[in-house]
């Protein structure tokens, strides 16, 4: 998709635009984007991938999400940054059939289900994705996905999976949040003290380790934490800024940064970009597999908001 589909944008604005608050525009590569601006914050969403790309509360000095300046905006490719939707599997193809990492949702054009201006001044955008012959060729199940994106004082993402077929299916998934930081070397993730994690970094060979204290970044970090608490704090020590992520429908948290060596081989990251983000992901991954019977539904929720400095600092130890 290169040239913008102006007829599609006109239709979306006529049906779902909210004057002065939400409009559909042509993004890079001609992809349909949503611009949201209300009394609380501004945000940008790519309908392709169902992916939030930017979120900035008005009191924040910069965007809370990281998007690579080298990101690819092309059908069939994933966009590096924001909040990609990993679904119906997280990580490598679980059946080793050569299918793409992180599933199919982040490389499909979603549909716009609804928009709403909420009484508290927030804006809600609901995107949908359903099975097609194309998706069933990759993953042979009938499903309905709904992603509710609420832009207010906080950014709230609610991903609902519904099994519309006649047989059970199992999924893993993640809201793969790229958080902007001033310097990853001065950033910590608090709240995981005492949790066990699967260490997937180079040379770790998938070992199980227990977290002691805050998570720090001195190289590649690729960890799947089990038994994670509902709230985690990301403390940007260089800017004295704290962001809190709260989760529902999840007991797994993924913490990732590629480090300098791995990032150097990633074409959609610029030199030094690895220092400018950390990924703290709300997930059902590793042993936390969600199995849905016919008609069953599961909701995965991530909410992020800034924490006043005086309230920041480490969260209590979760234990084991």
From TrEMBL:
GO molecular function, one term: carbohydrate binding
UniProt KW keywords: Isomerase
Catalytic activity: alpha-D-glucose 6-phosphate = beta-D-glucose 6-phosphate
Enzyme superclass (EC): isomerase
GO BP term, example: carbohydrate metabolic process
Active site (UniProt): 176, 281
EC number: 5.1.3.15
Keyword 4Fe-4S among UniProt keywords: no
SUPFAM superfamilies (alphabetical): Galactose mutarotase-like
PANTHER family noted in UniProt: APOSPORY-ASSOCIATED PROTEIN C-RELATED, GLUCOSE-6-PHOSPHATE 1-EPIMERASE
Name of the protein: Putative glucose-6-phosphate 1-epimerase
């Amino acid at each position: 998709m290169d040239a913008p589909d102006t007829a599609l944008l006109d239709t979306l604005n006529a049906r779902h635009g909210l004057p002065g608050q939400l409009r559909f525009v042509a993004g890079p590569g001609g992809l349909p984007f949503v611009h949201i601006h209300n009394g609380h914050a501004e945000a940008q969403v790519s309908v392709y991938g169902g992916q939030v790309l930017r979120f900035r509360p008005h009191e924040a000095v910069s965007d809370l999400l990281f998007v690579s300046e080298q990101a690819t905006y092309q059908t069939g490719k994933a966009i590096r940054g924001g909040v990609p939707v990993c679904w119906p599997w997280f990580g490598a193809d679980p059946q080793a059939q050569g299918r793409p990492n992180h599933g199919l949702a982040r490389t499909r054009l979603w549909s716009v289900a609804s928009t709403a201006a909420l009484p508290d001044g927030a804006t809600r955008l609901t995107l949908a994705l359903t099975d097609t012959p194309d998706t069933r060729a990759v993953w042979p199940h009938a499903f309905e996905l709904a992603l509710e994106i609420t832009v207010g004082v906080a950014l709230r993402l609610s991903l609902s999976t519904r099994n519309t077929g006649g047989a059970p299916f199992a999924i893993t998934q993640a809201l793969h949040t790229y958080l902007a930081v001033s310097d990853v070397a001065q950033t910590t993730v608090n709240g995981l003290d005492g949790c066990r994690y699967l260490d997937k970094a180079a040379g770790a060979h998938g070992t199980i380790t227990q977290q002691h204290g805050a998570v720090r970044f001195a190289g590649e970090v690729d960890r799947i934490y089990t038994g994670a608490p509902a709230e985690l704090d990301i403390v940007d020590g260089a800017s004295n800024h704290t962001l809190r992520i709260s989760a529902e429908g999840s007991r797994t948290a993924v913490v990732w940064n590629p480090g300098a060596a791995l990032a150097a081989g990633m074409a959609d990251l610029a030199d030094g970009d690895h220092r400018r983000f950390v990924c703290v992901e709300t997930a059902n991954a590793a042993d936390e597999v969600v199995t849905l019977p016919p008609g069953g539904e599961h909701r995965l929720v991530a909410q992020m908001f800034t924490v006043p400095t005086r309230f920041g600092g480490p969260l209590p130890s979760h234990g084991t």
